[in-house]
Amino acid sequence: MIVIVALCLITYLRKNKYETAIFKEPEPDFPEIRSKNSLVKKYLTPDIWNRLSRIQTETSGFTLRQAIAPAIEFDDQHTGIYAGDEDSYRIFGDLFNPIIGEYHRLPADFRHNSDMDASHISGTIDPGAPVHSTRIRVGRNIQGFGLSPGITRKQRQEVETLMKTAFNDLSGDLTGNYYPLQGMDESTRQKLVQDHFLFMSGDKNLIVAGMERDWPESRGIFHNQAKTFLVWVNEEDQLRIISMQNGGDVKQVFERLSRGIAAVQKSVKQITGRDFLFDTKLGYLHSCPTNLGTGMRASVHIDLPGWNREGFGSLKKRCQELNLQPRGQHGESGGHDSITYDISNKHRLGYSEVELVQTMIDGVNKLYKEDLELQKRHGIL
Ligand code: ADP
Ligand code: MG
């Protein structure tokens, strides 16, 4: 009887979307989700758990329990889920899809569209605005390797080896060197972090999601001489491609990013025949479902002394209205400790890259104008 049921299940799953899955012993208990307000809590049902917790993905052997580890472990997650590979989005789709739909507020028939043409950007950030620097990054992952939460040690090594060769093909202003984290001189590492170029370890979400396994092996940073074009290897995504420079010339930063992405993609393709992971509906695939689509965050570091007096809560609320997101100047997990804020686009999916950059430029100009008024009100100006 059990054999017949198992065979029927396998036939059913094969016919549908699980043709590349591996089956293991069913997980007996429905997990306790500590993040009561998370989307995992909202959408994970006993039925989904019973069907999907017994499946392991083929690319990296990832499971549903691993995917939702942050929601199980912590009480403060909004989504609470990561993908371990491309397969995860398909195989665990009954959980991922409603979460993605709600988080990105997408209509069912949504299709991602990309626009990396800098000439489509209109206007610029007010030259009077106290902008220290501009940075635009995208995440990219390569076909056939697990995503950071699931990637095997061997796959991670292969990604690094591949990228070392790929970086050699970059030319012109993109030319640079790759610096592995392992063996990096501690003062060099600290300086790179301090200057906002390099990631660091210790983010609790990344750790629980399995992204710091074997740290620091196979992680590193590529950058050109001027440190205006950088690629992080094997952090939250296999690749974070970054363009940044001092001042507020967003168009120039975007133009360099656009060329850089195309050059890296071409080189990876030439070496392996593989492309970046892309889905017509979800756009570029990332380990975190909040990054799906463009995977792009365009930010400026700007002084907002007026908004600083109003408090971070007020700034956050205003940014929401403008489709922006505020962070402190030391990044997502660094807190905020000065009048300098990181202001970026809030959305990743549902809008093209150009649209998101435009939202950032227009929103920052508004915040700057409002900041002058607030400075007057608070007697700073
Ligand atoms: P990401 O979205 O790339 O993961 P994080 O918030 O983790 O961003 O920040 C990564 C690093 O990038 C941090 O050191 C942060 O200070 C730096 N950074 C972000 N925006 C800017 C900017 N406009 N100028 C300079 N550095 C920036
Ligand atoms: Mg980050």
From the structure above, extract its key features.
381 residues; single chain; 16% strand; eight-stranded antiparallel beta sheet; binds adenosine-5'-diphosphate
Shape: globular
Which class of secondary structure composition applies to the elements?
alpha+beta
Ends: how far apart?
80 Å
Order of helices and strands: HEHHEHHHHEHEHHEEEHEEEHHEEH
Number of helices: 14
Percent of residues in helices comes to 25-40%
Report the biggest beta sheet as strand number plus sense, adding barrel if it closes.
Answer: 8 strands, antiparallel
Tell me what portion of residues adopts beta-strand conformation. Answer: 15-25%
Rounded mean pLDDT score: 94
Ligand inventory: adenosine-5'-diphosphate, magnesium ion
Which regions are unreliable across 5 or more consecutive residues at pLDDT < 50? Answer: none
**Which radius of gyration do the C-alpha atoms yield?**
22 Å
Q: Walk across the major sheet and give the strand order.
A: 4-5-6-7-3-10-12-11
Q: How many distinct beta strands?
A: 12
Describe the structure.
The protein is an alpha+beta fold and 381 residues long. The protein has 14 helices and twelve strands. The strands form three sheets. Strands 4-5-6-7-3-10-12-11 form an eight-stranded antiparallel β-sheet. It has a two-stranded antiparallel ribbon with strand order 1-2. The termini are far apart. The model has no long low-confidence stretch (mean pLDDT 94). It binds adenosine-5'-diphosphate and magnesium ion. Magnesium ion binds next to loops. The site of adenosine-5'-diphosphate has 17 residues, from strand 3, strand 7 and strand 10.
